[in-house]
Structure of Ubiquitin-like protease family profile domain-containing protein:
Amino acid sequence: MTLIEWKEHKGFCLSHDEPAVGESERERFITNGLACLPWDAYTPDLANGGSELMGIGGEVATLSMPCNKKLSKSEKRELRQSKKINAQKKRQMKRQVELDKYGDEVEASFKPYLAKQEIKHIYTNVILHTTDTGKNFLSKGEDFKVLQYHSIALYKSDLEHLLPGEWLNDNDISFVYELIIQLFIKSDQCRDFANQIQLLFPSLVQLLQHFPADDIENLLPMDDLIKSRFLFLPISFIDKPSVEIDMEDANNGDHWALGVLSLLDNKLFVYDSMKVDNDINGDTQLQALCKRLESCSKLVKGKIKVVHMNCDQQKNFDDCGVFVIMFTCYFIGQFLFHDEISMDIGKVQFNPLDARLYIMKLIAKLTNRSNGK
């Protein structure tokens, strides 16, 4: 098992110590990945706006409207629905506490139906109350920008991909990556050497996979990358890689997986939530990606070894992109807030529906701030 340790005057280094007693017996726990990062602590200006950033068991945000504005019939119906969901959730939590034989308060178990309702509710709230211009586009059935966050413009169509049952697109993953970069990696509050971690957007990884190999170094932000020790790569696998790729299409690919390239020992750790044994096609694409990375002599010194890691597996065909985000957030939380990091996540169980809800709440907070609410 590969262990990494953070040293105050060096940054991230390979650890040569044996795992602590009981490390291999670590209990399985459930997370949505995003909750491993202290979002509220690093976004104090968002602490009172929008939905609370709660994990499993969080409460639905009620529709926020100016007190002097008369509600329309649809808005009244939406408000009643959110109150009904909150009341139902409170009753369930109360029953859970009463049933606990020790009388201790315990968190109510995760309710998928309520989570799906909450996601749809927040989505509707964000779309309807973004801007007056947005309402005009909505009435015409057109796409429109919901939020601009640094380099990422988030559109209504991107939010639709966050709804349950939908397949995340490039922009959804890029948005969360941009949040992590701006709020944590570039934050003055964060630990030194945070810039040794680099998150590459899916569009850039796609170029790495399919652009002519001779020009790869010219594509990459080499000044930043040569300082790094870990690269996070959202890898898009294609079932038929021999088919010519349209580089203008942002959402090529059939499946997402996360690659974490450790430049400390030239290993590409691959976390695939739909792992297939003896996947010749997938292995071929990974080897091709490694060769392209190896051609960046300023960045990679030597041959890269692909290491397939055990990780939680998705239970449907829609959540691969969500798993990439959950894995990434879990690891970033480890790298930035722990001194000892294990690349083994085999005993961590992830909740993709709760992750969709968490991301939607983040978007609601940011849109509320940008709209001055």
